[in-house]
């Protein structure tokens, strides 16, 4: 079995400094107030495992993920030393059982650093967004040109990304050893349907994808044959293979009906079931209760409880929490201006857990998170 054992965020969005999360091999339920950073944890995992649209929008796109307080401190300082330029970093440490430590995972084996020091012979990946030293002379000129100005703007166009395995190899999303699936049931940025379909498509084997794409290219090549054969001019119609990514047109359907045409609640259940049917070692779901009735939420809880691999869920729904077991709770809260996690794996006896499972109409989360 392979799973996410630890996640380390450094100056990423609302997490100033170093923040560490430890996960169970099976179910993990992230709870906390609105704006505390549950979605940020999901974004960090997705950036580590799947990459980001920065690959198409340029590295400056990632500047918004640097902790805003760190950025302001640097911009308002009297000196703007290159070594003090703000950056963020992420680390995902894999838990790997002995029988799974094979040659395929060797490229993920190496060392990482956390608050307790350097750890060797571990498995995982890291992502860093920082200043690119090859622009040192350009940055020096930039500083000289901006001396005396009231405001200072960090030149994020001089930044770079470092996405690597613990062995030091460049990491690409196609290498994802967890074959992870991310489901955001309320995200309408870009095309969420194609994003989900693309994740499913990318979980096919390399051989399966090559076969499908070869057939697709053959269809494109012969698509206009009948028309071009009748055309006596020197100009013929063709499909430009370089302007079309096959996975950008992949869709998901159920009984010949596109997922886009289904109601939000039905779409939610189908996405979850599809993810469970795949060979995914990790499924991450944001607010699975969205658009579901209480009865359908129970159906989804049954789906999720059937999962044998790792599940990470964010929720505001007490029914989800009690249905997936209180012992799997991971409460994110602020303590002395620093965010931290609180685990509940040994704080509830069986009688208490069974009571809240039976009485899923009780707002357990309100009781837990309420200020005492």
TrEMBL record:
SUPFAM superfamilies assigned: P-loop containing nucleoside triphosphate hydrolases
InterPro entries the record matches: AAA_GajA/Old/RecF-like, Bact_Antivir_Def_Nuclease, P-loop_NTPase
Domain Endonuclease GajA/Old nuclease/RecF-like AAA: residue ranges: 3-321
Protein's name according to its UniProt entry: AAA family ATPase
Organism (species): Lactobacillus gasseri
Upper taxonomic lineage: Bacteria, Bacillati, Bacillota, Bacilli, Lactobacillales
